[in-house]
Design goal:
Blueprint lengths: L14 E6 L3 H11 L18 E6 L2 H14 L5 E5 L8 H11 L4 E6 L6 H7 L6 E5 L4 H60 L3 H10 L3 E5 L5 E4 L1 H6 L5 H4 L4 H4 L8 H8 L1 E10 L5 E12 L5 E10 L1 H46 L6 H28 L6 E4 L1 H14 L4 E7 L5 E4 L1 H18 L5 E12 L1 H4 L8 E10 L29 H11 L3 E6 L5 E8 L22 E5 L3 H13 L3 E5 L2 H10 L6 E5 L7 H11 L5 E5 L7 H7 L3 E4 L4 H13 L7
Parallel strand pairs: 1-2, 1-3, 3-4, 4-5, 12-14, 18-19, 18-20, 20-21, 21-22
Antiparallel strand pairs: 6-7, 6-10, 8-9, 9-10, 11-13, 14-15, 15-17, 16-17
Length: 708
């Protein structure tokens, strides 16, 4: 189903909700729960707890379908539809949902029923896609219903914004396509001029010979069966022959890459003359070359081809630059999107992490609850690392590498895969070495494993099969590494991911590591998984190989340089004393939830906390009593006054005040600038309790020149 926004859609100041139930009392309950305070005669001065909803109430399903039809025609679509299942005497909620979905592919649909016998399999079959369909049971809890409405409206708006972004990107692609079309027209005119020049050269054999041999295009003359009769030096160079005589044994038809859309032989036989012909050919060294040019079949009086002449221009570099430009534009879009969501996502993680740590402190040691809470914290750390990695990838930034063992990451990945992949997949691990320490970023090694295993699982999704992750070591000598550019002789850790899926065709194996290349259906993949793997392995001075045969599965082998350093990722944090202190801290964050968590954590560490959700109010409080505060702990991304601006103004009032800056993502934050300002520490969100305690301890015990 193609999701799109109608061209006549108007900007909306209120989220529109469609509520359908045959009972007036239930409709009244919905209105009481979801209507803004002013609609119910409430106090208009109170801060609204809900977004500004516009409710439409219907007693029957056919009325609801008509309402959606009118809304789409007016360009004011509904965000969410809440449908009862049984609404006698009219059609039921499933029929209503199915018809609403046919009219509006973007609306979020919630099926509400007091009965547990609803056929969810039939519901999911008739009302697609499943990610825009929810099923809940009555009775409805007001707070849950409010949160559900807010969340679904936010999800609907996000999807709507993404569709608009895609439309903008498509417009940019169209503009560049038009520019390329104009270039092709100019090239066609240039080729026409060249043809006229060649016709004139026929009048003089000597002039023809000189120009033929020195032409920058690859010129050739071939027999009707494709065997070369003559060519120039440019042709030999384009196709990788050392000299013109070396090229004379070749057949021009055999140079065309197997699998090309149109056979050059068939095109010549049917069209006789090919202008602005573009093709992909194979050089003598088996590398591909992109050419554009004109190929002409010379006819005799009976209309038969007696000779083939061609003039080919190597545009491989131009194609490469065009692809780099396209990838750069996509990466720019990804980077913009990633930066926009990173801050909010880290704040969400901060709430989860903070409350989990608070609960963990009051949990019995060794209990199942403690184990589960530690699993949550581990997942939050991985999510934090993943956010940083996405940001670094979109900015092509550097990674923090340290000595780590690969086998624990493999065991963790296998554990995760067994809980998330179907039981039809037999997942095995085969650790064949204990010398598995490499210099690497742990989150990136984790991503290599997940990306390779996810692709392997996708290849076996229909019939199941075997997915095996093995770990070994190998020593490469000079003779071996001389055949692989980028590798040095020495010991390597070898990670191998093998599956028994459908395999990878030979014709596309050299493309699978290209960014955005994918064989998956739309919506199933971005084409970035193997490109990310290749980029990470290259950053770690390694290499990745693939071996595959159609119908016999695939095997990906990653070689990473082994290191003799000790693994420094395994530390016993619980054995270290948690720094406890005293003093008065001014804590500033525009997220109230983070302020509440931070206050509780800081007070638990022994500090007195003055918290503000406004950076402007925080600055006023500090300026009123600057000597009453021992430290300022501030978020960076805040309205009106950023964390760095707050720090700058606070340091003007009191230059020796210790300041810690917290940030989830900000391109303008640089360590050198922070050090120059006098900020003591930078802490990346989401913040763990130990991380916060140690940062505060360092800031309070260091002088004003301490590192940031």
């Amino acid at each position: 189903m193609n999701e799109q926004i109608p061209v006549n859609e108007t900007p909306m100041s209120r989220y529109r909700l469609l509520v359908v139930d045959d009972e007036e009392s239930i409709l009244g309950l919905y209105k009481e729960i979801l209507s803004p305070a002013e609609d119910l005669g409430g106090d208009l001065d109170e801060e609204p707890l809900l977004p500004d909803f516009e409710l439409t109430m219907c007693n029957q399903g056919d009325q609801a379908v008509d309402a959606v039809r009118v809304a789409m025609a007016e360009g004011r679509p509904y965000s969410v539809a809440l449908l009862d299942v049984r609404m006698p005497p009219g059609p039921d909620g499933v029929w209503t949902a199915e018809n609403i979905r046919a009219l509006d592919p973007n609306i979020e649909i919630v099926i509400v029923s007091a009965y547990s016998d609803v056929n969810t399999r039939e519901l999911n079959r008739r009302v697609t896609p499943p990610e825009k369909l929810l099923y809940i049971q009555k009775p409805l809890h007001p707070e849950e219903l409010r949160q559900l409405a807010k969340s679904l409206c936010a999800k609907w708006k996000t999807a709507r914004d993404l569709i608009m972004l895609n439309a903008t990107l498509q417009k940019q692609v169209d503009m560049r396509t038009n520019a390329l079309s104009e270039a092709n027209k100019r090239l066609k005119r240039d080729m026409a001029v060249r043809m006229r020049m060649l016709q004139e050269l026929l009048e003089s054999e000597e002039r023809y010979r000189l120009l033929f041999e020195e032409d920058i295009t690859g010129d050739f003359v071939a027999a009707p069966d494709g065997v070369l009769k003559a060519c120039n030096k440019a042709f030999a160079r384009i196709f990788g022959f050392g000299t013109v005589p070396d090229a004379m044994s070749v057949n021009i038809f055999d140079l065309q890459l197997t699998g090309s859309d149109d056979s050059l032989r068939d095109l010549i036989l049917t069209r006789k003359k090919l202008e602005n012909f573009e093709g992909v050919f194979r050089r003598r060294d088996l590398r591909t070359v992109h050419v554009i040019g004109t190929i002409i079949g010379i006819l005799n009086v009976r209309g038969q081809i007696v000779e083939i002449r061609g003039y080919l221009l190597d545009v491989t570099e131009r194609k490469r630059l065009e692809e780099q430009l396209r990838i750069a534009q996509k990466m720019e879009a990804i980077g913009t999107l990633a930066g926009g969501i990173a801050h909010d996502f880290n704040n969400i993680l901060g709430v989860i992490t903070g409350y989990t740590e608070i609960i963990l402190e009051n949990t019995d040691k060794g209990s199942s609850l403690e184990r589960r809470l530690k699993e949550i914290l581990g997942a939050c750390r991985r999510a934090k690392d993943l956010i940083n990695q996405i940001l670094n990838f979109s900015r092509q930034g550097t990674q923090e590498k340290k000595a780590l063992r690969v086998s624990p990451l493999i065991k963790e990945t296998v554990k995760l895969l067994r809980t998330s992949l179907p039981a039809s997949l037999d997942i095995r691990e085969n650790i064949m070495t204990g010398n598995d320490t490499v210099m690497a970023d742990p989150s990136q090694i984790h991503q290599i494993l997940l990306n390779l295993c996810t692709n392997a699982a996708h290849a076996m999704r229909e019939r199941g099969g075997l997915l095996e992750i093995s770990l070994a070591e190998v020593h490469l000598d000079e003779a071996t590494v001389s055949k692989t550019p980028g590798l040095s002789a020495g010991a390597y850790v070898v990670i191998t991911v093998t599956d028994s899926g459908h395999g990878i065709p030979k014709t596309i194996q050299e493309k699978i590591f290209d960014p955005f290349f994918t064989t998956k259906k739309p919506g199933e993949g971005t084409g970035m998984g193997l490109a990310v793997v290749h980029g990470i392995v290259k950053q770690h001075s390694g290499v990745v190989y693939v071996q595959s045969e159609e119908g016999k599965g695939a095997s990906f082998q990653v070689l990473l340089p082994q290191t003799g350093l000790m693994d420094d990722t395994v530390t016993d944090e619980e054995s270290r004393m948690l720094p406890i202190g005293k003093g008065r801290i001014l804590f500033v964050d525009d997220e109230k939830a983070l302020v509440d968590i931070g206050r509780e954590i800081l007070e638990g560490l022994g500090y007195e906390v003055v918290a503000r959700t406004s950076s402007v109010e925080a600055l006023e409080a500090f300026r009123f009593q600057p000597d009453k505060f021992d430290l300022i702990l501030t978020d960076q991304n805040m309205p009106n006054l950023t964390g760095m601006e707050l720090a700058e103004k606070a340091l003007q009032t009191r230059p020796d005040v210790p300041i810690i800056l917290c940030t989830g993502f900000s391109e303008i934050v640089s360590y050198s600038k922070v050090r120059e300002m006098g900020i003591r520490e930078i802490v990346m969100k989401p913040i763990l309790k130990r991380q916060l305690a140690e940062s505060i301890h360092r800031a309070l015990t260091s002088d004003s020149t301490a590192r940031a």
